[in-house]
## 1
Amino acid sequence: MEIDLIFLFEMVGTVAFAIAGALVGIMKKMDIFGIAMLGMITAVGGGVIRDLVLGRTPPVAFVHPVYAATAIVVAIIVFLPSVRTFAEHHQKGYYGIFRIMDAIGLGAFTVVGAEAAYSWLPAPNVFLAIFTGAVTGVGGGVLRDVLAGEVPYIFVKHFYACASILGAVAYCILRGLIANELAMILGVAVVVVLRLLAAHYRWTLPRP
Amino acid sequence: MEIDLIFLFEMVGTVAFAIAGALVGIMKKMDIFGIAMLGMITAVGGGVIRDLVLGRTPPVAFVHPVYAATAIVVAIIVFLPSVRTFAEHHQKGYYGIFRIMDAIGLGAFTVVGAEAAYSWLPAPNVFLAIFTGAVTGVGGGVLRDVLAGEVPYIFVKHFYACASILGAVAYCILRGLIANELAMILGVAVVVVLRLLAAHYRWTLPRP
Amino acid sequence: MEIDLIFLFEMVGTVAFAIAGALVGIMKKMDIFGIAMLGMITAVGGGVIRDLVLGRTPPVAFVHPVYAATAIVVAIIVFLPSVRTFAEHHQKGYYGIFRIMDAIGLGAFTVVGAEAAYSWLPAPNVFLAIFTGAVTGVGGGVLRDVLAGEVPYIFVKHFYACASILGAVAYCILRGLIANELAMILGVAVVVVLRLLAAHYRWTLPRP
């Protein structure tokens, strides 16, 4: 049951990040192969980094084809002309959809990553779980941006990595107090809400 | 004997990717040290990623200096003025040589990477072997392009990662049917032929 | 006692690279969060790569929060307006400070990385120790530059990776001849002196 929720979160994150990655590829005028690659790397990248950090080799995404295959199928669907036309008309272009998908993927992978530290390591400290969660959450997006030739989002946008860290903190605190499933859902909610609020209200942080 | 063929393929890939990496460094006007570094990283990068993914640490390229040393020597030879002059006159500049070397390296490392999954892991599934092969094949070139400040080839050029994946698929199918050595040679051939045909005939894939 | 010196070098490298990373973030007009992230990644990146290469998972920086926490605090201090004003007035802008901090971090992490190969692996060859040292030394700076959207320093500036390699060579030779502590200090000195001399006298290497 608990395993199932983790798998569900992984798949939600995979689909969301595949969409976000494919949209970046579309905005960059890549061909369908580049778009599928970028969607897949965005979706599985954070988990691969997480597994390397935890010493879990080969990484899950290399053992179970379901993640990469799902991401590629999703990216190809996003590429379909009719889907693109729909997106352009219904969301002020792609950017609104990108932002929501990116927030969902960030939240899902953050919590899955923090949970993996607890389930994989014999006695992780809370810092390790938070750090692993944040790296899992932001890793796919950082790879996406670097590979697309952009300065990663986490360095230019307000509060992005901060939302991931705070969600990981929330999950790590709550999992000792309430059922793990509920702690996971609340952890994701913290990330998604903070990341979207920060973008919507353009929360700014001091600059030089 | 079989081990020897793998080593041969690794050295062919190392030399080819060192040349490809050095040529990118020359086109970017780097100094000889940058060129040697870029040649070496292109040559050993895919193998290092493969070993990290397979949990084979320290990676082979860190244990056996032959790969890095060969790549550095090759990159320095490519840098020599007389060699550069020759290249400029005989191949319409560097680009033709770059493409062939890149194709050979892509093919050799794809097959070596897929083979490593079978020889290193107790019971790999075929997806894992294909994925490991493709990551080994494209990894060096992706590092090269990111470090040189370019959007990686796999996202902008037709069919590049696809050639690697199809070559890995060919090798994984053939290795159960024919001698491993022959399967390896045919796997490399599939990658090289597809990648060069795609470049020559400018096979295009749909774009947004 | 020996462990303490290693920890001291790690902390010196962490502080120096956190300052160097934060200064790059300031020059890139990032907000305080991006600057803290970039400072932290610069500081812990080389060590994380070292640990992945050595198969030491989870990496030390994920297990002990002291490195990341120190780097973040240092980066925030660098960001403070009064500190920035001081830096601008006393060092011909940031660049002089950046260069010195980068040299110290490069030296400290190079030696710590080479030492880690000896202390972690049962029987490392000297090439492995040198290579691990150089990767640990330059890794944080390469991540910093790639994430900030720059071509990494090691490819454009004279002698940068070379200084790291020569420092690692010096340490590996000396550690068999003199006390390890002294070998470490001399190894760092070789890197710092070479890197600063190369920058000061603009030592140039051949270019195409």
Note: The mean pLDDT of chain C is 89.
## 2
Amino acid sequence: MKIGILTSGGDAPGMNACIRAIVRYALSNGIECYGFYRGYQGILDDDHVVLKRTSVSNIIQQGGTFLQTDRCEDFLKSEYRRKAAVILRKHGIENLIVIGGDGSFKGAELLSEETGITVVGIPGTIDNDLAYTDRTLGFDTAVNTVIGAINNLRDTMQSHNKVTFVEVMGRRCGDIAFNAGLTGGAEYVLIPEMPFDIKKIAEEITESALKGKKSNLVVLAEGAGKMEEICAEFEKFSGIKPRQTRLGFIQRGGSPTYYDRLLACELGIESVKMIANGTDSRVIGVKDGKIISYGISEALKMRKQFNRSLYEDMYKLS
Amino acid sequence: MKIGILTSGGDAPGMNACIRAIVRYALSNGIECYGFYRGYQGILDDDHVVLKRTSVSNIIQQGGTFLQTDRCEDFLKSEYRRKAAVILRKHGIENLIVIGGDGSFKGAELLSEETGITVVGIPGTIDNDLAYTDRTLGFDTAVNTVIGAINNLRDTMQSHNKVTFVEVMGRRCGDIAFNAGLTGGAEYVLIPEMPFDIKKIAEEITESALKGKKSNLVVLAEGAGKMEEICAEFEKFSGIKPRQTRLGFIQRGGSPTYYDRLLACELGIESVKMIANGTDSRVIGVKDGKIISYGISEALKMRKQFNRSLYEDMYKLS
Amino acid sequence: MKIGILTSGGDAPGMNACIRAIVRYALSNGIECYGFYRGYQGILDDDHVVLKRTSVSNIIQQGGTFLQTDRCEDFLKSEYRRKAAVILRKHGIENLIVIGGDGSFKGAELLSEETGITVVGIPGTIDNDLAYTDRTLGFDTAVNTVIGAINNLRDTMQSHNKVTFVEVMGRRCGDIAFNAGLTGGAEYVLIPEMPFDIKKIAEEITESALKGKKSNLVVLAEGAGKMEEICAEFEKFSGIKPRQTRLGFIQRGGSPTYYDRLLACELGIESVKMIANGTDSRVIGVKDGKIISYGISEALKMRKQFNRSLYEDMYKLS
Amino acid sequence: MKIGILTSGGDAPGMNACIRAIVRYALSNGIECYGFYRGYQGILDDDHVVLKRTSVSNIIQQGGTFLQTDRCEDFLKSEYRRKAAVILRKHGIENLIVIGGDGSFKGAELLSEETGITVVGIPGTIDNDLAYTDRTLGFDTAVNTVIGAINNLRDTMQSHNKVTFVEVMGRRCGDIAFNAGLTGGAEYVLIPEMPFDIKKIAEEITESALKGKKSNLVVLAEGAGKMEEICAEFEKFSGIKPRQTRLGFIQRGGSPTYYDRLLACELGIESVKMIANGTDSRVIGVKDGKIISYGISEALKMRKQFNRSLYEDMYKLS
């Protein structure tokens, strides 16, 4: 039996640990592993490597993905997905493990439906923006990276009595901003899930400045609005020119945390078990502390629930 | 309404974040907070501080506990527990939040039974050795500290072809060793929950050395046996003199991870809510991703289950 | 005898360690210390604190400056400098220690000349842009922060075959970019001290991509040009759209490295010794491994020499 | 022209960066590089690799040495050194670069004298125990690792009012203990270079405890005495049982700091330049901020000077 493995979409810490788990667990069960480079593109180019135990030595602690990743435009077209199946079957591969986000899973769903290739999807994205799973690979690491950066920012903003706006990743999902902001000690967190009133924030900060509290941190998810515009509005209402920092791609890298490594191992092991047991195409994840799986289309239809009550409680602490 | 707060037993990263959450959430609900220094001893000495919002500024990111902690021999005696209740009631305090481990909860149980003071226990210990909760405050930070240390050790052991034994904390519970070891890339993990055969390990390492694998990492929980003796046995069977490292108290400190800060906030908020709603004495924790609570004696009677299947699966990766 | 202390201009890691050293060394010599908040503004507002040994406990490891810092427009005018001297003398302070950069030293020079107050300047700025000293407080920490961030960026750019441009601090001086870039493994470093040809870089990167080298890191000092324009030019010549990251204020914070702490202690001690020995106004620093000092105007006239030969040698390694 | 390269003795962060610099600088000058594994043993076994530019890609940030290191008993005998020269000359290698400490340099001196092979020695050891150079590769990283560990220890000792003894590396040289201790905020530093009176320390700590200062940190170099004995004495005189922590091998690993990477590059470049210019056998290093070199026997005869005046001044701050 042979399994294909690829990483797709944005890279995330823990992808390497997950590939290692898949390869070693599969090999210990007599299953061969083909790694395809740069996501679906690697299948189309038949750019692959046969993975041995030692191919994945010393990578559990490394950020990124040694199989590399890419977004593959061609794979949006049916003819290329059929070509991919032909190439996979040429190698005797009927089962594919895709580590990626919802765009990658959409491709997986179509590949599976159109060609009968079985795909198991593992959630790998720092954004934590998949509704069917409580956690995605890389999220824990990214949030810890952000609170480290916030720690640095607090040193300097406290030295200057500054209001600082920090933009973090998250186009549709404010989980990084919310979690890193409120545990990083930010005064405000602006996320796509919750309306906010920049005028009210400006007034509160102006007022608290009169009482002596002069440094304030506002953490902003990408998806909550354009930082420059929000800062301009803030300045208009408060008369205070805020500092702006965009953390950018440093959030994507770094050695994965223990939790992301462990989740990577558990999901990698489970995906191999499912394939060995003849699963249909599914995505796996973690819900209420347990590994779970769903049919791909079912998973992709779910809408992420925002924990508003936690949000409101946490705000009382800031 | 007034709440007493103390930290007891071994300190753990996240205790400060938890005190902050309790104080700010309580104050936002009109509840006053008295912090007692050095655990139960602080009640007996009436060594306390009235905590304001600003008393807990800028501590969410700090390891340790600014209320300090201690083991209190006197509190093992009923007369001192009665004295503690008298002092608490002198201040109008009928509810106490205790952040600590099972020894601290035992004291809490007796205080509650004998005097009618309501105690809510929050699990704060890096060891993760409480059966009723999946996680204790400080565990996530400690495991990340250990994998950081292991990363350093791997640099040097790979430069030398060395077998290295690392002892980590965990007298009764191998969770730190197991989680940090297997996600740190250790070849072996020795824990109190699982028998091990040092002769077999010695033979396997000797054999793999012949095939070219010359550096091996063995992570050992305190409770699995004396490191010196285990290393001596290993040397006897393998002829290889291993390096020994005991990580010690560095595992107790450090800025808490995002997860420990978040858990600290959630448990702190919940403890205040329970008290505001007139709870009886209970310990709280997290199970399957949800905040849960138990009667203290019920919780203390539980036995921690070891996840043997995960252990065996993870071993196939190492 | 009494000494005034202030931090001025941009904050830098090591300022707290330096204040601690000044205070404790002065007190051990029977000299009192007045800390003024927010730089020169704190003198004008007579916003000060008398510093004791315990006032500076537990700050050696903290970034930023607890005395805070600010740029003070008023101090550019002679009348305010005279007012400052009056306030200092009201407290019996004839000697002032200023931790800051060249703007702060310019103010110090004028204050000294016009009023006879003796000022000793200590170089505190992450930019390392003072010609008279090999190192400024905060530079070592900032460069280490940047190579940490670069490490994260490399994980993700290697996963994506991306060309990444990173902007780091340094308006007039490329030391952060040069040192962090070449020791961080960057392929190119763009600094104000050296001309560069973005067309040639684009061509080289395009050519090396053909040979299989697909990820490239370009580190850019603020003063070398506008990142957006340089990236647009790069894209025009290469056809490759680069990623852009601006590290921003995270470079200013963080716990100081050992070297910055040690330098802070040595400069702090030396400044007190000089004052105790009746020095005239001077700035101190480190040259060829030794603590040195210059008259302020002499120091400010020096022009920083760029080590072109090191630059060229280092480039051969990248 | 061909150069041999090896790393010998204890590994140190920066060795990889130095090998990279040697290889790339040599290749850019048309010189071939042979890396020998496990120090001198690799020559005796003729266990070598021809190093290309890409052989040293992506290692500048890695601790340890990919060429590995070992202590080689055989090399203490003249016959083996002559054998080594024969093997080197078989490959056409007349010049050898040895990265290591004084034991390795002693071997280099003898090899050079007896066989005429030219050896350039680069100081690579975390201990900073070579008299002829101000800095050795790995020292800056090791001290930063130790102050990070001390930071963790301070969290927990402050939570417990504990006296903590920490043993750090340094058999003959207290530089790690002195530098990390005093910049880490330790109250006492015990080093082989300075006598100390444990009774007096015990009395001072007992006395300061009465005044409310209850947590104290004592940093101890390996060479200052046996930790267990010193702690027993301390307990006898003070009645306080101290915590003991031995940092061990974590001090050897970790990603090198910027300074160690830069020094590695500069020394690597210089060693190649010297060989290209037909140098005799020498060791190189850094003195007063400049790269310097000495004849090997001259260097090995020097005695390291202890900076007692800095020691005494720094103590006034603790």
Note: The first strand of chain C starts at residue 2 and ends at 7.
